[in-house]
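Continuing the series of single-chain predictions for the mutant panel. This is the parent chain; the variants come on the following pages.
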Amino acid sequence: MNKVVLIGRLTRDPELRYTGSNTPVATFSLAVNRNFTNQNGEREADFINIVVWRKQAENVKNFLTQGSQVAVEGRIQTRTYDGQDGQKRYITEVVADNVEFLGSKNSSNNSNSGSSKNTEPTPYDFGDMPEPKGTDVDSNPFADFGASIEISDDELPF
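Parent structure:
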């Protein structure tokens, strides 16, 4: 089984390209903290290359920037190519099946804080999009459904 789940922050803005058949593909690098500290008491991170395809690639490019926190689910892939010097190069990367946007680079990591001073747009900020029209809770939501129906427990056959 080849399955990877990572949570980390983007080390750079995603790069979006298109294949010869016009399929979108985005790449970015993810910094993932290790669960332990080194001899100096510092927490180290691994930097993992991520590849994401199609509509998700366009969403990643449009809504994520350096420092954004994401969860990535996918698989590890290794590929090779010949460098300009004739040496064989190996690349290991994660091909993402799913990228979940967790927060912006300035979002607070402390869930106990009362307010966030983040004024930058998050991946969920849709700009000037109008608010969805909901039902007024003070009005009757069934007003347009016709005549009323009386229901009584006494009429049940059991």
